[in-house]
Design a protein that fits this description.
0% strand, ABC transporter involved in vitamin B12 uptake, BtuC, Iron ABC transporter permease, mainly alpha, transmembrane helix, transport
């Protein structure tokens, strides 16, 4: 579906011919290899990142409405990237006018991670005296995240200049003009973070219990809560750096996965919940991106706007079931 539809619709035969280079239609080859295939790949990777971050945070914070924004990660990563891009533009314009770009694209995931970790560390520091109690952690995270998001918009509107429009589109969550360079930036983070997560998932499984029960099994709850929040931050920041924030993916996907597994032997097994969340997050983000670029083609709606519109009714259903 992602390869078939867009501003130019292609038949399955045309897509296959373009993928295999079995014809000389350079336009179709460019559409598939330069636009749709990398964009679809990036959508699935980013969706998986946000989904796994949501699984981790909802388990660690023990709050079913947790996602990366709850620990300030989204706001911290966004602020770091916006400041670096605007500062890079200023330095380039005043000191290196002959250069086109000061901030390399390859730096963005690391910049986002620094910002996200800084914000998350501040939230953890605020919550440290309460022994990282989940309610206090969530409240502090929401407050810090809201403050950081306000600072991001202030920076963009006050000093955005030529980057104001592109910054706002990025902050809305967009896959526009993404190529295999962006996929290559995100893929190593995917492999490392997923490897760490699945090596440690048994400890996260224990953290589904309350703190007293988990401690009685020999788990240092405070330490492992910190470690898993760090892993979730890595997932979130690396994806956010290349796509912008994709609203509600980290929040609703774990609930969808648990609902699909309800009544099965895997319903409480975090490994299976996580694997299904990976697939659902990838599929949901890909579907949102397809709609975003075909609904009013050739114009586009930011993918993050679509994920939010999809997520709001699902969130209301979740709240109604819990109420």
């Amino acid at each position: 579906m992602a390869l078939l539809f867009g501003a130019v619709n292609l038949s399955p035969e045309e897509v296959f011919s373009a993928i295999t280079y079995s014809n000389n239609n350079t336009e179709h080859i460019a559409i598939i290899w330069d636009i749709r295939l990398p964009r679809a790949s990036l959508a699935m990777l980013a969706g998986a990142h946000f989904a796994i971050a949501g699984v981790i945070l909802q388990t660690v914070i023990r709050n079913p409405l947790s996602d990366p924004s709850v620990i300030g990660a989204n706001g911290g990563a966004s602020l770091a990237i916006v400041i670096c891009l605007l500062l890079g533009d200023y330095i380039q314009a005043h000191f290196f006018p002959e250069q086109q770009q000061i901030i390399s694209l390859s730096w963005l995931p690391a910049i986002a991670l620094v910002g996200a970790l800084s914000a998350t560390s501040f939230v953890l520091k605020l919550s440290w005296k309460s022994q990282l109690q989940t309610s206090q952690l969530a409240l502090n995270g929401v407050a810090v995240g809201a403050t950081l998001n306000a600072l991001v918009m202030w920076c963009v509107l006050a000093w955005g200049g030529n980057r104001t429009e592109t910054s706002i589109i990025w902050l809305a969550g967009s896959l526009y003009a993404r190529d295999f360079t962006h996929v290559g930036l995100l893929l190593p983070w995917t492999l490392v973070a997923l490897g760490a997560f699945f090596m440690l998932h048994k400890r996260l499984n224990v953290m589904q219990l309350d703190a007293v029960s988990a401690s009685s099994l020999g788990l240092n709850v405070k330490l492992w809560r910190f470690i898993f929040i760090f892993i979730a931050t890595c997932f979130c920041a690396s994806a956010l750096a290349v796509t912008g924030p994709l609203g509600f993916i980290g929040l609703i996907v774990p609930h969808i996965a648990r609902t699909l597994l309800k009544g099965t032997a895997f319903a409480t097994r975090l490994k299976h919940i996580s694997l299904l969340s990976l697939l659902v997050g990838a599929a949901l983000t890909l579907a949102a991106d397809i709609v975003s670029r075909t609904l009013i083609a050739p114009l586009e709606i930011p993918t993050g706007t679509l994920t939010t519109l999809i997520g709001i009714p699902i969130l209301l259903v979740i709240l109604r079931k819990q109420g």
